[in-house]
Write a structure and sequence with these properties.
Layout (H helix, E strand, L loop, with lengths): L6 H24 L6 H14 L3 E2 L16 E5 L2 E3 L13 E10 L2 E10 L5 H19 L7 H14 L3 E2 L5 E3 L6 E5 L16 E4 L2 E3 L5 E3 L6 E3 L5 E3 L2 E4 L6 E2 L4 H6 L3
Antiparallel strand pairs: 1-4, 2-4, 3-12, 4-5, 6-10, 7-8, 7-9, 9-14, 10-13, 11-12, 14-15
The structure holds magnesium ion (MG) (2 copies).
Length: 262
């Protein structure tokens, strides 16, 4: 069942999503070699609750094991998604995807950004840049009259043209009162295929892109997803509302990118 949102609901979604952007910017302020992902997690949870919201990831159910223990997913280097915060200090040259979800006034925010920790190589920067470009190419397609497959195709072709792997097992999604609603938004697909995009459809678009092969596996903690070849992976995510002519991006990287220079 696909729920199109009213203008009022879209504003609630925007509020929840802007809080995600602010939270990620707070984390960016302390992100440097030596910081642990648990420290990031504690800061995120405090910041989200101080703003009257709930961290939706905390206690998120898992069909394969225990619920998610953290308030953010911190996926380092070869981890693609769903990394559990831990006590290992981040090192110079690491990359970390921080995926964050909030619930505010009953509506969900969901956005992710991949950060370089200290200095990284040009090869790593190129992966980050291309993955973010792919996200915006997907968003360009998220307009009334196109189809989900147009978004998927735009993301996939941009990443594969640059020689990267496009993860298949995890996808974007509708979003509203629930973090994951219909329809699914894959990062691979065919133009002109899939659900027709209508005004008020709110979706999270989230390319998960690897430097090597697209194959992945699940870590023994039953959450972390890692590339099989242990090459690094990047993940960027925006929540958007489909509109005529141009999508309305409800989350924001603006405050994050005021802090970093990547
Ligand atoms: Mg997310
Ligand atoms: Mg998502």
């Amino acid at each position: 069942m696909i729920y199109l949102k009213t203008d009022e609901e879209v504003e609630f979604l925007r509020e929840a999503n802007l809080l995600v952007g602010k939270t990620l910017a707070e984390l960016a302020k302390i992100l440097k070699p030596g910081v642990t992902t648990r420290e990031l997690d504690v800061l995120a949870e405090t910041f989200i609750r101080d703003h009257g919201a709930e961290p939706t990831f905390k206690g998120f159910p898992n069909p394969y094991g225990p619920p998610f223990p953290g308030s953010i997913c911190t996926s380092v280097n070869d981890q693609v998604v769903h990394g559990i915060p831990n006590d290992r200090p981040l090192q110079d040259g690491d990359i970390i995807s921080i995926d964050c979800g909030t619930k505010l006034h009953g509506y969900c925010g969901d956005s992710c950004y991949t950060f370089a920790v200290g200095e990284v190589s040009e090869e790593v920067n190129a992966l980050l840049r291309t993955t973010k470009e792919a996200l915006y190419k997907g968003i360009e397609q998220a307009v009334v009259g196109r189809r989900i497959g147009d978004i998927s195709y735009a993301v996939q072709t941009h990443c594969e043209a640059n020689g990267y792997g496009v993860v298949r097992e995890f996808v974007g999604h509708g979003i509203g009162k629930e973090m994951h609603e219909a329809p699914q938004v894959p990062n691979f697909g065919r133009r002109g295929n899939g659900v027709m995009l209508k005004d008020g459809l709110c979706i999270a678009i989230e390319p998960m892109i690897t430097l090597g092969s697209k194959e992945i596996y699940m870590q023994p903690d039953r959450w972390g997803i890692v590339t099989r070849d242990h090459k690094i992976a990047a993940h960027y995510e925006h929540t958007i509302c489909v509109r005529k002519g141009k999508a309305d991006i409800l989350s924001s990287f603006e405050e994050i990118e005021e802090i970093i220079t990547c």
